[in-house]
Design goal:
This protein is an alpha/beta fold. The protein binds adenosine-5'-diphosphate.
């Protein structure tokens, strides 16, 4: 069984000194209480204990935030200043984030149970990189010159889409926030952000840094609160021009319905995934086992692109199973602030119970539990890294997004079979391929219906690399210049020529 260094039990690491400074809504450049005065609890998933009380924004607070964002868009300087100037302010914002990496990483660990070491090395530095990428793009927003077929000529202008609502999930509270906020800022939009109720702390801290960096009041507003109230108010708001959502397919559908029923705002959805990792006979087995372990267990499996369906070709299957079981045993579960730990607690009790239920479903449906399968530690929401073999395509653990440290291993014979199995899901977010054969890699990557394909790697994200779904994983792209387009309208401007029939 994996070792558990839960709480302070082994005393071999030093906890950072965490101060929660911001707990109120951020509207029009000020931290304010919610109109109702209500607050909700933010809990530490290591223990389940309350760490802070956060202002609970509802519809009336969203209305205030949208009013501020609307005013900042319709009459403020942000959409009207040069892209160069917006880029300079965004770069300053990125510098301030770099100066506060430890504090920001600690807040995400405290809220979400994420590894503090990963936050410091990856999540938070990644956020400032994404911001700088779009800061560099802010003064390169071009239209086209149009030589029209009739006697006229024209050009296109790319203009900011307006007030944007960003609805953010809890699994990557910093990363996904900046997937959305950065291109929207570069485009010249103003916005209302709703972080997930499980992870409000870092978003409020970022709002404070945005103000320090010189982002004008009203441009970036943060309303903390629950999905069915604050989130739904954003989705249905008549004065919001676009909503960018990341979360479950079920809620994505509700967001789209609300947008359709209100002002037909533009919607982009990054939803669930059930991503395949296909490992061919020619793979280096040790490397493939390590990749599968990371693909399935990183961030305790709370990743929409988690490689939770592992397809292994029959020639190496038995060796792979044996090595995968051994490697799960060296994957350390414990306090996310401990630098020796690989996996912290699930985000909250509901998620913890949901994952354990899926493990029970796997056993009930006849899969073989190879390793793990139980909670661990005597407090908090820790679950052993779990591997099932003999998984069949129809089983719940092969079809549903579990969002927990559960790997399903399946055997295949031919490349055709691998492609068919990989595509046998309602989702289409990401996929991985492990092979040394270029033809195999090319053929499989072109045959899989998913938004990103990783060959001999996994979780390789880059600011320049668009990311989003096929099928029920949603539509619209985060990152890359495609994401900038999401926040821009195209306007055509046409003038007649001297011999035009339009004159
Ligand atoms: P998960 O299943 O990963 O918790 P959700 O889709 O429930 O993901 O939540 C993602 C985000 O959507 C969170 O910020 C949540 O508060 C918000 N949300 C939940 N329900 C709604 C809703 N009805 N309308 C708008 N946003 C919602």
């Amino acid at each position: 069984m994996s070792s558990v260094s839960n709480g302070n039990s082994n005393g071999s690491f030093k906890m950072p000194d965490i101060k929660i400074k911001f707990t109120k809504l951020f509207i029009n450049g000020q931290f304010v209480d919610s109109i109702s005065g209500k607050t909700f609890e933010s809990r530490d998933p290591r223990t389940g204990e309350v760490t802070a009380r956060i202002a609970e924004g509802e519809k009336a607070d969203v209305d205030l935030a949208v009013k501020a964002a609307r005013e900042a868009f319709d009459h403020g300087v942000w959409p009207r200043m040069s892209g160069y100037e917006r880029g300079r302010i965004m770069s300053k914002f990125a510098d301030l984030i770099d100066e506060n990496v430890e504090e920001l990483a600690a807040l995400d660990s405290l809220d979400a149970g994420k590894l503090f070491s990963h936050g410091k090395l990856m999540d938070i530095p990644g956020v400032s990189r994404v911001l700088r990428y779009y800061a560099g793009a802010a003064d390169k927003i071009h239209g086209e010159t149009l030589k029209c077929s009739q006697q006229c000529q024209g050009y296109t202008l790319k203009e900011p889409i307006g007030v944007v609502g960003h609805i953010v999930p809890w699994n990557y509270p910093s990363t996904i926030l900046f997937f959305k906020v950065s291109p929207a800022l570069a485009a010249g939009c103003t916005m209302v952000v709703k972080p997930a109720e499980q992870t409000p702390l870092s978003a409020l801290y970022y709002a404070h840094l945005a103000k320090q960096a010189g982002i004008p009041d009203g441009v970036l507003n943060v309303v903390t609160g629950f999905g069915p109230t604050a989130g739904a108010a954003i989705a249905s708001h008549m004065e919001i021009d676009k909503v960018s959502f990341t979360g479950s397919t079920e809620v994505g559908r509700a967001v789209m319905e609300a947008a359709a029923r209100s002002n037909l705002k533009s919607v982009s959805l990054e939803l669930g995934g059930k991503c395949p990792l296909i490992i061919f006979d020619d793979a280096d087995v040790d490397m493939a086992v390590n990749l599968a372990r990371v693909a399935s267990f990183l961030n305790k499996g709370e990743v929409c692109v988690a490689g939770s369906r592992i397809y292994v070709q029959e020639g190496i299957y038995n060796e792979f199973v044996k090595k995968a079981a051994e490697s799960a045993k060296t994957w350390v579960v414990g306090d996310p602030f401990d630098p020796h730990v690989n996996q912290g607690p699930q985000v909250d009790k509901a998620q913890f119970e949901k994952v354990l239920q899926y493990i029970e479903d796997g056993k009930r449906e006849g899969a073989t539990l190879l390793t793990g399968g139980k909670p661990c530690g005597d407090q908090g929401y820790y679950i052993e890294p779990t591997i099932f073999t003999d998984v069949k395509d129809h089983m719940l653990i092969a079809q549903d997004e579990i969002f927990g440290p559960v790997m399903s291993l399946m055997k295949f014979k031919t490349i055709e079979e691998a492609i068919e199995k990989a595509n046998n899901t309602k989702y289409g977010l990401a996929a991985g391929i492990v092979t040394k054969d270029l033809n195999t890699a090319n053929r499989v990557s072109r045959s899989i219906r998913a938004g990103i394909i990783w060959i001999n790697c996994y979780f390789a994200f880059d600011a320049d690399c668009p990311f989003g779904g096929f099928k029920m994983s949603g539509f619209g792209r985060d990152m890359g210049l495609d994401a900038l387009d999401k926040y821009l309208h195209v306007k055509s401007v046409v003038t007649p020529l001297y011999d035009s029939p339009w004159l």
